Amino acid sequence: MSGSIERRFCIQPGGQLTGHLRVPGDKSISHRAVLLGAIAQGVTEVEGFLEGDDALATLAAMRQLGVPIERPSEGALRIDGVGLKGLQAPPGPLDLGNSGTSMRLFAGLLAGQSFASELIGDGSLMRRPMRRVTDPLGLMGASIATTNEGTAPLRISPVKGLKGIDYEMPVASAQVKSALLLAGLYAEGITRIHEPAITRDHTEQMLSALGCPVSQQGGWIEVKGPVTLTSTRIQVPADISSAAFFLVGASIAPNSTVVLEGVGLNPSRIGVIEILQRMGADIVIDPDPVGEGEPTGQLTVRHAPLRGIEIPVELVPLAIDEFPALFVAAACAEGETVLRGAEELRVKESDRIAVMANGLSALGIDVEPQADGIRITGGRFSGGRVHARGDHRIAMSFAMAGLVASGPVDIDGCAEVDTSFPGFVELARGAGLEIEVIEEQS
Ligand code: S3P
Predict the structure, then answer these.
(1) Rounded to an integer, what distance in angstroms lies between the CA atom of residue 65 and that of residue 155?
(2) Residue 206 DSSP code
(3) CATH-assigned architecture of domain 27-235
(4) Class level of CATH domain 5-25+237-441
């Protein structure tokens, strides 16, 4: 939870979404720009950086590790890279707030340093599973202590050196893959990681842009350490995970047409578009001219009737952060939507299966949560009160549900929306969502 402010969204139904919008920068790419720019040689200039709490937590931690980072204007960073060996012991624990990506990627980066460090976070982050990174890092020779439950604080002790390993990840996780790749930069020999399904490859792409080729073959990703990274310019696209709320909102609210500009269209992230299109959504993709960074494009979404589907299991990692919004789409679709193979949703910023199931049924939707997914029968949202449990994506998803409810929808526990989407309320209101924010000291 951020401080002691309680924030509630109050949505009046009946709105429609229209306009040209640009959502903030991609969270995953923003983290990686700071982490990799910091250990490159030379100055890395970043544009489109997400000034949300999660990415700012990575930035603040990196400054504590002795890396000079300027913020010359909104969304711009100037990172004075210190090189692979230039990080310094931090003055105290690194507080990564709500950000699982920061904690897992820093675990990999700091595992091979010659100084000790400690990683902590907020209540939600301190409950999330960390053995998925500390176990394989231990196989590489790292020394990282967790609690008995395998949670933070992570206490990282200096070790003589790391060695490359071959590691088959039991869960498809870009955070684990990235942590091991970062550790692999410091390791002797080759670090090979196998992913059971394709996950976002921003780390691989950025490493290649910084002069460290990463080979990818048959599900194996390989990096050879130690390496030197060379600074570059990084353009951060608009975050498809934030665009997803408008893709769903405009799909379900009659008379809506929204154009989303400059959205990142990395193939490992566009599962949400594919799933919505399979449900009947009207989404047109206009790719931007190919530039230096990751692919981007303009998305035009118009209201369309949706139908329930069985979500193909191979699309799950490609849409892993968009399921709260997709559940809202499913609740408005004709027939049943079935999701399986998504147990990871239970260990995100909240248990997203349980919290979404509770909220959907509070709004009159028939749901059947399962250990690894959910079955949702489309219907009509009633008005009512739901709780986002401090999960940013759940708060924004239920805000979109309010567009088509039969009465006002109140959403408690919305303070964390700024972790990924600063300015959400203003942008959504400008597009036509009738949203009020009530803040209370708790
Ligand atoms: C992320 C990877 C995903 C995603 C998270 C961001 C990343 O987590 O849910 O929001 O930036 O690498 P997992 O890799 O644990 O699935």
Answers:
(1) 15
(2) H
(3) Alpha-beta prism (3.65)
(4) alpha beta
User: Among the options 239, 321, 412, 418, which is catalytic?
Assistant: 321
pLDDT above 90: percentage of residues in the chain: 96
Residue 395: C-alpha distances to residues 56, 155, 319, 417, 418 (Å): 20, 32, 18, 7, 11
Which residue bears the tokens 């998803």? 397
The verdict on the CB of residue 58 being under 6 Å from ligand 1 is: no
Report which ligand 1 atom has the smallest distance to the Cα of 31. 11
Q: Say yes or no: do domains 5-25+237-441 and 27-235 share a fold.
A: yes
CB 73 within 8 A of CB 43: no
How far CA 101 is from CA of 28, 54, 173, 179, in Å, comes to: 8, 8, 10, 9
pLDDT at 81 over 50: yes
Token couple for 154 = 């992570």
Q: Which amino acid is at 28?
A: S
Residue-wise pLDDT tens digits, 193-240: 999 999 999 999 999 999 998 999 999 999 998 899 999 999 999 999
User: For residue 225, what pLDDT is reported?
Assistant: 86
- Whether residue 3 has pLDDT greater than 90: no
How many whole angstroms separate alpha carbon 304 and alpha carbon 383? Answer: 22
- Spell out the alpha helix ranges (H) of 65-144: 100-110, 131-139
Q: Would you say how long the chain is, in residues?
A: 442
Per the annotation, the verdict on 412 as an active-site residue is: no
- pLDDT greater than 90 at residue 5: no
Pocket test for ligand 1, best of 101, 133, 176, 239 (most atoms within 8 A of CB): 101
Radius of gyration of the chain measured on its C-alpha atoms: 21
How many angstroms separate the alpha carbon of residue 55 from the centre of ligand 1? 13
Q: Summarize the confidence of residues 53-64 as an average pLDDT.
A: 98
Spacing, Cα 31 to ligand 1 middle (Å): 11
Maximum Cα interatomic distance, the chain, rounded to a whole number of Å: 63
CB of 104 shorter than 6 A to ligand 1: no
How much is the pLDDT for 51? 98
Nearest residue to 267 via CA among 314, 334, 200: 200
Domain spans of the chain, in order of start: 5-25+237-441, 27-235
* Beta bridge partner(s), residue 19: 258
Q: Please give the helix or strand (H or E) that residue 60 lies within, else none.
A: helix 53-64
